[in-house]
Design a protein that fits this description.
Helix 6 crosses helix 8, helix 8 runs antiparallel to helix 19 and helix 15 packs across helix 19. This protein has one domain. By secondary structure, the protein is mainly α. It is globular, with a radius of gyration of 23 Å. The protein has 19 helices and two strands. The chain is 61% helix and 1% strand. The protein has a two-stranded parallel sheet. It catalyses: a hydroperoxide + L-cysteinyl-[protein] = S-hydroxy-L-cysteinyl-[protein] + an alcohol. It comes from Ceuthmochares aereus. InterPro entries: AhpD-like, Sestrin. It is found in: Cytoplasm.
Length: 423
């Protein structure tokens, strides 16, 4: 998937990186209910909710590589109604997942020409949650900055010499084999990008050629005025944002075309004492007891990959962090995890939430909330400001906890709604 900046950051924790890449590859490139081009378009829709150009640009290229229709890249008005109908659930999951209901699920699954199957919807939901959470990581670790001024950088892979799973091979224990594989992937990406650029330009030229012939025919039959009107609806316009004047493949310029209701965003979840009925209690519906089995049954093996990833982030060594905070590693990580879930209205009856204020200093809580709830507002200064005495790898660890806790929160709400629909 050519996630160079992401893999470099995650490379501080190689075991987690391996688990993440397996899940990413399975979601995007292995057998599953959804066509490959649709998977990447759904990823574009998800990333656009947080204005994450890094991920949108990545999946624009992957979408075209998978044989996707370039016209779709003009925005939601140019895609099939079935995909466009996913917009509502995308919006809700990205910003206020507690609002999702079985009615939203029923609307997508109702019998019609554009209905979704349960398996397709589960695949789509996992993709949406994955990309929303990954957008948080991208902004939280500064990967978005790599897109260049204005976020519209040329989509070129990094040079092979820069490809590494971590900054210092010796100190982080990266093997030469991993480096060799990663450099090979980078070279492969260069060749893939060249091939893709030629493919896009061929489509552009072929479309222009067909359109020119059609316009000449139209001019002969209906005159200049009607020909000009047809020219105005040039179907190659969908490629204009992908190729610059030098023929280079470039990034998406207008992310607004990939979403509706752009003003819809995160709002603080109601306090527990104000609205008892809306609180999501993990004791009633948990990943381990409910979500895992449902998602694994409807989308074979994805449950195992997700579960491994959740367990992997929980098992990452954080003794240095905990020592500096004056507590056990498991206590500190649980504080961060439960704080993130609390912001989405998910509560654990066996947890004393007073611990959150004791464990997490205010500046860290502000950072976590920003990266989790409105990542597009994160800047590099926020990353540098919290935990000044901590290593970069320890800050990345916090962002991995945010990624996984947020993803699980979205999945819990979506899978619970699907379960209620099925019942």
């Amino acid at each position: 998937g050519r996630l160079e900046a992401v893999t470099q950051q995650m490379g501080y924790h190689p075991q987690y990186l391996d688990s993440f890449l397996k899940t990413q590859h399975y979601l995007m490139h292995m057998d599953g209910p959804l066509p490959f081009d649709c998977r990447h378009y759904i990823a574009i829709m998800a990333a656009a909710r947080h204005q994450c150009r890094y991920l949108v640009n990545l999946h624009v290229l992957q979408f075209l590589r998978a044989g996707g229709d370039p016209q779709w890249l003009r925005g939601l008005d140019f895609i099939p109604p079935k995909l466009r109908n996913l917009n509502e659930i995308n919006k809700i999951l990205a910003h206020r997942p507690w609002l999702i209901t079985k009615e939203h699920i029923e609307k997508l699954l109702k019998i019609s020409e554009w209905s979704w199957s349960l398996a397709e919807l589960v695949h789509a939901v996992v993709l949406l949650a994955h990309c929303h959470a990954l957008a948080s990581f991208v902004f939280g670790c500064g990967c978005e900055q790599d897109e260049g001024p204005g976020g519209r950088g040329l989509l070129k892979p990094m040079s092979p010499g820069n490809q590494c799973f971590c900054e210092a091979t010796a100190s982080n224990g990266c093997s030469q084999e991993l480096l060799r594989i990663n450099r090979k992937r980078s070279l492969d990406s260069c060749m893939e990008l060249d091939s893709l650029r030629e493919h896009v330009q061929r489509i552009h030229m072929d479309t222009e050629g067909r359109e020119e012939t059609r316009l000449l025919q139209q001019d002969r039959e209906e005159g200049e005025r009607q020909g000009a009107e047809v020219h105005h609806s040039d179907p190659s316009a969908g490629l204009s944002s992908l190729i610059d004047s030098d023929g280079e493949v470039t990034g998406a310029t207008n992310l607004a075309c990939y979403m509706q209701d752009p003003d819809f965003g995160y709002q603080d979840f109601a306090r527990r004492d104000e609205d008892q009925t809306r609180v999501f209690r993990v004791q009633d519906y948990s990943w381990e007891d409910h979500g895992f089995s449902l998602v694994n049954r409807l989308y074979s093996d994805i449950g195992h990959l997700l579960d491994e990833k959740f367990r992997m982030v929980d098992g990452l060594q954080s003794s240095a962090i905990a020592k500096r905070q004056g507590c056990e590693p498991s206590v500190f990580k649980r504080g961060i995890w439960n704080y993130i879930h609390c912001m989405f209205g998910i509560r654990y009856d066996d947890y004393d939430y007073a611990e959150v204020n004791q464990l997490l200093e205010r500046i860290l809580k502000v950072y976590i909330k920003t990266v989790t709830c409105y990542p597009e507002k994160t800047n590099s200064e926020m990353f540098d400001r919290f935990w000044k005495q901590f290593k970069h790898s320890e800050k990345v660890h916090v962002n991995l906890l945010i990624l996984e806790a947020r993803m699980q929160a979205e999945l819990l709400y979506a899978l619970q709604a699907i379960t209620q629909y099925m019942i």
